[in-house]
From TrEMBL:
Its cofactor is Mg(2+). GO terms for molecular function: beta-phosphoglucomutase activity; magnesium ion binding. It comes from the Bacteria. Binds 2 magnesium ions per subunit. The gene is pgmB. This is Beta-phosphoglucomutase. The active site is at D8, D10. The lineage of its organism: Bacteria, Bacillati, Bacillota, Bacilli, Bacillales.
Amino acid sequence: EIKAIIFDLDGVITDTAEYHYLAWKQLGEELGIPFDRTFNEQLKGVSRMESLERILAYGNKSNVYTMEEKEQFAEKKNEMYKQLIQKITPKDLLPGIENFMREIKENGIKIGLASASKNAFTVIERLGVGHYFDTIVDAATVKNSKPDPEVFLKAADQLNVPYENCVGVEDAQAGVEAIKRAGMFAVGVGNAEQLARADLVVSCTSDLKLDDIKRAFSEN
Ligand code: G6P
Ligand code: MG
């Protein structure tokens, strides 16, 4: 039985995954490390510093910069990202998400947020959906970032729901991996090949339907 559904934020509730991409892409170009959307899949769900390390490794520049310089790069990316999220309004909720959350509530199922972003509270506030969440766990309170399961485990603990009664919803490979390691049922939003580890994949948020998830969950 499903007792809680725990959402990722960026790329699931709203399309901030695109803003992360644009900001990293800009920084990458400044560092002489251009990359495309295919490489970007490896950055989704991954913490800020780890994302930077992956970009530097991709450009064979892992050992070129000091820790101080790396922190400046990460800071620069974050400033660009913060500019982009200033424009967010409730209209930027992805299609069907609010109806889906309402449906979950009506079924007496709890809702959690498990985000690797230090900007999660700002984004949720700008979207005006804070009241849907029974708990919010963000990057400020977890030590290990996805694919480590910590953020999902912590959300379930705070909801007081056993892991096997939880469903996680993710758009990132690292996120789906984190959900599976947490012993939860994983719903992927996006490309079925990229999210092959998920128990159920829908191509977009408007296809998230509680009945479909309940059916797949009970067949699992
Ligand atoms: C989410 C996003 C990642 C981002 C990470 C850290 O997991 O999917 O793309 O790098 O959060 O975000 P932050 O806002 O703390 O830099
Ligand atoms: Mg995401």
